[in-house]
Amino acid sequence: MNLSKYILILTLTVFITACTSNTIYKKPKDLIAKDQMVDLLVDMYLANAAKNVKTKKLERKINYMPLVYEKYGIDSTRFQTSNLYYMSLIDDYEAIYKRVDAQLRKMLDTTEASLKTIDSLKKVERKSKKKLPNKNKFNKEKILKTIAEEQK
Fold this sequence. Notes:
Layout: H1 3-19, H2 34-50, H3 65-72, H4 76-88, H5 90-127, H6 140-151
């Protein structure tokens, strides 16, 4: 083998070993428990997604993260140190994110099913010759609020 092949092999070896770091960070004193981390991440994803949704006052780009931190009684630094620690334990981190994904998918499925039910009921009401009295009208916001409360 010539020198260029040795250099190539050496470079690839250094690159591969650099990409597979086995660094495990020291467990923080105020580590967020895994169960709470799952709930926190779910709320963070929802808060991030809600940033671009118009409010009743037609406002957008509202940062809801401070409300999430307040809900869990933490600050961004505590989240960052806990998140970094769990990231260094890739199996734990993967398990956490699988649970986050499952919760978000369940919420999506529930919301989609509710919206389909609301749409079906509205179609029935439109087809009906006699309109339903106001007290029986279906309030989309009220139904979604009830669903959200049930999921807590």
